[in-house]
């Protein structure tokens, strides 16, 4: 059985001096190319029946930062879920993990750009409790935070202010309070400030260091 928990999958990143391929998602490739690459990456699995574009990009109403949603139909979800990290490797994600919060399974990728990609499965799941913050989970928490912040920024740019406030309250409960931040942030920049301070304290407390590559990619469009 595949465990759809908090675990994230870290990948090797290019050297800071290396130049990304111009055909890589997030580096000037066309939106159609990203759709093709994402569908091809997951669709090549023998137990995937279909990969279909969904959400605002399918409806033709995206903002510049809108995520890419793909509905995935499978004949054997467990096998596909186990193979997802290798399947999405051609997309060179900075981070990837199962979303803890929805009632159906969602595998989240964060690509350079920054670009958020979600693979949505018709597979019920019990939403996870708030994060348990410790030295072993801090990196996965960091990846979840920046993925969430990028998604919130796209919703804010679409004028969905009420949704953003609701999600900031949810972020407080599930991610910030476990890190010792008691107050609900009133804006995305406030959430970022509060999180950064709490993360630094957590790093000192647990003697760990979270890489800043994901933050550097996302912060330029949200702060």
How would you describe this structure to a colleague?
The protein is 42% helix and 16% strand. It has seven helices and five strands, in the order αβαβαβββαααα. The relative contact order is 0.13. The protein has two domains: 31-124, Beta Polymerase, domain 2 (2-Layer Sandwich), CATH 3.30.460; 138-222, no CATH class. With 223 residues, it is α+β, with helices and mostly antiparallel strands. A hairpin with a 5-residue loop joins strand 3 (95-98) and strand 4. Helix 4 packs antiparallel against helix 5, helix 4 packs parallel to helix 7 (213-222) and helix 5 runs parallel beside helix 6. It has helices spanning 31-43, 55-59, 77-87, 138-157, 161-176, 188-206, 213-222, and strands spanning 48-54, 68-74, 95-98, 104-111, 115-124. The N and C termini lie far apart (40 Å). It has a five-stranded mixed beta sheet with strand order 1-2-5-4-3, sandwiched between helices.
